[in-house]
Amino acid sequence: MKTYLVGGAVRDKLLNLPVKDKDWVVVGGSPEILIDLGFTQVGKGFPVFLHPKTKHEHALARTETKVGSGHGGFEFNASREVTLEQDLLRRDLTINAIAETESGDLIDPYGGQADLQSRVLRHVSLAFQEDPLRVLRVAKFAARFAHLGFTVANETLELMRKIAASNDLATLVKERVWQEIQQAMTTPSPAEFIRILRRAEALNCVLPEVNDLYGVPQPAKYHPEIDTGVHIELSLEQCAKLTNDPVVRYATLVHDVGKGVTDKEKWPSHYAHESLGVALQADITERLHVPKEYAQLAAIVCEHHTKLHRIKELRGSTLLKLLESLDAFRRPERLDKFLLACEADARGRTGLEDQAYPQRKYLLAVLKSATPLDIPALLAADSLNQPKEVVSTARLNAINECIADLHDHE
């Protein structure tokens, strides 16, 4: 029985990246042998065991046979006769199919080291197309490693297109699709995830609302890049510079989906795209079971981002209504996320990437002016009106004073 370090740990080690999780494959072993050695069996699909001391996952070497549709339609053979090369052959990409012996020697039967040096994401074998989830995984790896210069091999993209055309992506469990999207939003280059899915002709299967934005024109006066899909990519790039928060990045991804369903006869104008976007992002939420935190921020960014862009035009009463809609008085941390998404939107325009965004400072000043109110004292001094009306009036007065002061100092 022999044990090898495999997968991401070997890959990241060779890329001089931090190694987070270590996975091991056991060749020539059996469940009985590992249990006798103190390992604990976990997992239902195939035998995986936790090391008694390190708690690292150890999986028996196995082969896979496609017997059904989708990501789970496989039968596994984890007999003691399965070789290391057979186990590595079933993996998705060559860079993930390198093993390391306990003495540190590398076993690389499928050219993973060469592809690491060439910065290429390439499938190991034609069995790649048997698992539709790999389309999303490759796009995610592209997003994770784009900053290192990695690209997807043309032949791998072609297999991804075949998977997309087969409609196998529709068989994936929706929660797993969301998991891949969410993880992609944590990578250094989330926009690359969208680009690769589109090049693989799979974006329409995963996020049709985003795919429909490509080719939709915007006024060149405000959007020199014109194409709304390109604007989304640029906005995601800017968002990645502003924050690592995947919740903000997801909101940025879907903030303009309403532009894909506005009246074509009125393009490049997009009247009411905000409310249309709220409805579409709700559809995405229902379809992919998007978590509440992500869905709520996406909804308020869809609905209110254009108000923030033209904030200096807004009256005090409109500003108060905006702050209340954002729940800014009770949830200032969510307001911060909203402001980041709006700034990413504003900067996600060709030639305007480094433009200042004073709207953020303006709204924060307005909020600050209306926050330190002595509400108990206000209510005690006015017993005739409803408490909500008393507080709103005091906040509006403070906001109007703040606006006047801000305009005086421009």
Describe this structure in words.
With 410 residues, the chain is α+β, with helices and mostly antiparallel strands. It has three domains: 1-118, Beta Polymerase, domain 2 (2-Layer Sandwich); 119-202, Hydrophobic Seed Protein, CATH 1.10.110.30; 219-410, no CATH class. The chain contains 19 helices and eleven strands. It has helices at 8-14, 31-36, 84-89, 112-118, 133-145, 154-166, 174-184, 190-199, 203-206, 208-211, 228-242, 246-254, 273-288, 292-309, 316-325, 332-347, 358-370, 375-381, 387-408, and strands at 2-6, 23-27, 40-42, 48-50, 57-60, 63-66, 74-77, 99-100, 106-107, 120-121, 151-152. The strands form three sheets. Strands 3-4-5-2-1-8-9 form a seven-stranded mixed β-sheet. It has a two-stranded antiparallel sheet with strand order 6-7. It has a two-stranded parallel ribbon with strand order 10-11. The radius of gyration is 26 Å and the shape is elongated. The protein starts with a strand and ends with a helix. The model has no long low-confidence stretch (mean pLDDT 93).
